[in-house]
Design a protein that fits this description.
- The chain is 79% helix and 0% strand.
- It contains seven helices and no strands.
- The longest helix is centred in the N-terminal third of the chain and has 29 residues.
- Helix 2 runs antiparallel to helix 4.
- The protein has one domain.
- By secondary structure, it is mainly α.
C-alpha cells in the first residue's frame, strides 16, 4: 500500500487548518488595525511569490508525471497571478483605486487557477506523485495561497466603502475646509 496520496492530502489539509487558525487568531485582528490599502497590500505579498511554480519545469524533468499542457496551465496561471499581485501592490502603494480592481482580479484569477489545477491534477492522477520541492510547495505554499485569498476577499468586501488611506483623504479635504472658513 502506498502512503503518498494520504500523506500529501493530509499535509495540505493540516497546513490549511493551521493557516486558518493563524488567520483567525492573529492575521485578521492585525489587518483590522491597518489602513485599507495596507491591509490589502499585506495579503497581496503572499501571491507575488507564485512564480515558484516555475520549478515545475525541473520537477517534470526529474520525473513528476505532468503533461506539458498541465505544466503550462500551472505556470501561466501562477506567473500571471504573481504579476497581477505585484502591479496591484504598486498601484495601492500610490493609493490608486486601480489597485483594488487588480486585487479583485487576482482573487478571481486565483480561484479559477486553483479549480483548473485541481481538475488537471485529478485528470492526470498527480495526487501523491509530488516529491521534493514540489511536495513542499503543494503542502505548505498552496494552502497559504488559499487562506490569503479568503482574507483578501474579506478585506475587499468588508471594507468596500472605506478610503484606501483615510489620512491622505483627510488632508486633501482640509485645505477646502480652511478655504470655506475664510
Amino acid at each position: 500500500m502506498t502512503y503518498l496520496v494520504p500523506a500529501q492530502a493530509g499535509a495540505q489539509f493540516i497546513s490549511l487548518f493551521v493557516y486558518a487558525l493563524l488567520a483567525k487568531w492573529y492575521v485578521a485582528p492585525w489587518l483590522s488595525t491597518l489602513k485599507r490599502a495596507d491591509a490589502i497590500i499585506a495579503l497581496l505579498w503572499v501571491h507575488v511569490f507564485r512564480y515558484v511554480a516555475l520549478m515545475i519545469f525541473s520537477a517534470q524533468r526529474d520525473g513528476f508525471p505532468i503533461s506539458d499542457d498541465g505544466l503550462f496551465d500551472i505556470v501561466i496561471g501562477d506567473v500571471v497571478g504573481a504579476a497581477i499581485a505585484l502591479v496591484a501592490i504598486f498601484a495601492l502603494r500610490y493609493r490608486m483605486r486601480l489597485g483594488v480592481a487588480l486585487a479583485w482580479l487576482l482573487a478571481a484569477e486565483t480561484i479559477f487557477d486553483t479549480v483548473t489545477n485541481i481538475r488537471g491534477g485529478m485528470r492526470e492522477h498527480l495526487m501523491g506523485a509530488a516529491s521534493g520541492t514540489t511536495w513542499l510547495v503543494l503542502a505548505f505554499y498552496v494552502p497559504l495561497i488559499m487562506v490569503s485569498v479568503v482574507l483578501l476577499l474579506w478585506q475587499l468586501s468588508a471594507r468596500h466603502g472605506e478610503a484606501l488611506d483615510p489620512e491622505i483623504e483627510d488632508k486633501s479635504h482640509r485645505p477646502q475646509a480652511a478655504v470655506l472658513r475664510a
